[in-house]
Amino acid sequence: ESPRHSDALNEILEYLQVLPQSYNELSEEQRVAWLTGELQTRRPLIPAELPFSEKTNDVIETFRILRSLQQEFGVNICQTYIISMCREVSDVLEVLLLAKESRLFDPVVAVGTIQVVPLFETVEDLQRSRSVMRQLFELPLYRALLAGGYEALKASQQEGSSLPIVPTTASPLTPNLQEVMLGYSDSNKDSGFLSSNWEIHKAQKSLQTIAEGYGLSLRIFHGRGGSVGRGGGPAYEAILAQPGHSINGRIKITEQGEVLASKYSLLDLALYNLETITTAVIQASLLRTGFDDIEPWNEIMEELAVRSRQHYRNLIYEQPDFIDFFHQVTPIEEISQLQISSRPARRPSGKKDLSSLRAIPWVFSWTQTRFLLPSWYGIGTALQGFLNEEEESEEHLKLLRYFYLKWPFFKMVISKAEMTLAKVDMQMAHHYVQELGNPEDQARLEKVFQQIADEFYLTRDLVLKITGNSRLLDGDPVLQRSVQLRNGTIVPLGFIQVSLLKRLRQSRNITATSGVIHSRYSKGELLRGALLTINGIAAGMRNTG
User: Could you give the C-alpha distances from 274 to 90, 239, 265, 268, 278, in angstroms and in order?
Assistant: First the structure.
């Protein structure tokens, strides 16, 4: 995460007394100027012995371990360094400086053995990604690194071009290739499903245009999760829905552990999924539709995304009772104790708010309660607003149906929403509200539930209008039957989970007030039972987060 690098440099520079003021107090322009100057010297900055805090030492040791791995096994063992929550040019330069200190980057010849990959996650960061990458490409040092060293940059300039476009073997990395990672999870948590997908779509188009302007190739790294709320879903349709010029024979995708188990555990299954993805990449690269470049269509999507984001944020960030609703009705606290991931449920901010909560437990909680809210909330209101404009409901409905038939991006959004809506069970979700909500808060919780339910029914009805079906997933009978069967099997688990969670929370409250608990089962046993139901429902829903 980007603050880890800046905090580490801040501590290092304060120890060495290099700057007249704290590094973290510098403006972005001052940081870039100092980092650029420091990157052009081989003078070491970090001492061999590390008299720093554990967090700073951890950052430094990460680069040193990376260097030792490359020395022992070769550069290909690990050469991609991803900066989570990347927001500024300095976030990238800080990593290069720390890499230089471990001899992963030589500033004199501008040759490195790692590729620094900025990860833009929130909506604001996705929108800012254009200016960040443009400023990076304007730095001669960074262009030289991408070109494979200063010799390649000089050669290209001598041939009359100011752009580093000459292949070279000076660097072990692919020359003139910039990789950028786009995050589906945090942008979805930040602004909702429709807005997130549209912002990522726009960012890809802009970044591709910028890279081409500097004579560079671009590889988009899609940070998808297993669930639709985190960018998951059928990979074939998702790849075809990418902007035409953003694939160009290259794509990189994350696959979650649960997805790996379902897609790659058997050899034939693995080959099938790899062939599907390969086919989609080739097809998207060669057979571009051009619908993404129709400006009036883009304007309509922008309008839908803005309206969807506003409605989503009105619930998540402006509804005063929403936080209580989320913590009481969903098993978020219990999920935080489930040993299924390498990272804690929250970022280390010290607060128990939505901003510090990671996207995986956020989506996981809504999946368990059968709301699946991050995958559809806001779409219905956005569509309804468009259909009601200027009393042209029928014409606008025909246009949305045409989008669904012709525009791969719009079809992907509606299809994913439809699949998720089919998994929603409002009756079961209401059971969680009634049983797990505090009795004194029931009126407030019911009000939030009704707001969510109204949006669900509106979204479902409008999706059916666009697809022309009478029931969700009528266009895919096999998936429809699969979802129906799985929905039915996990209903008993939902009732068991609610019962266990209720007893577990009551035992905690009794212990907290009196210190004594009289129960047939211990808190540990109740928690273990609740966690087992969480695993069971996740298996039935075929995704966690």
Answer: 37, 13, 13, 10, 6
